[in-house]
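How it folds:
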Amino acid sequence: MAAERIFRFAVDGDSYINLAGDRRIALLAVCVASQQGAGFGDYLDLRQVECPACRAPGFNTGWGAWRFTCGAEVLGGEDVDFSEPCRAKTEAA
């Protein structure tokens, strides 16, 4: 998997509505940027899936994994393999 990147979002200002505070939209933006880094070119994967543990929304990172708003990251494939745990499940335990 690629090195972890830190993304910066535009700050609030003027009269624009800043959607970076919406975890789902912010995650989608990060995943699309990650897809571009993975070489997707002009192809965008905007399919939304649910975390297998808590049903939080998630998107394709472009690096063989799906990242979710709960913090989980699941490697692609038929078996569920959490490379990052679902924080919703670990906080509930």
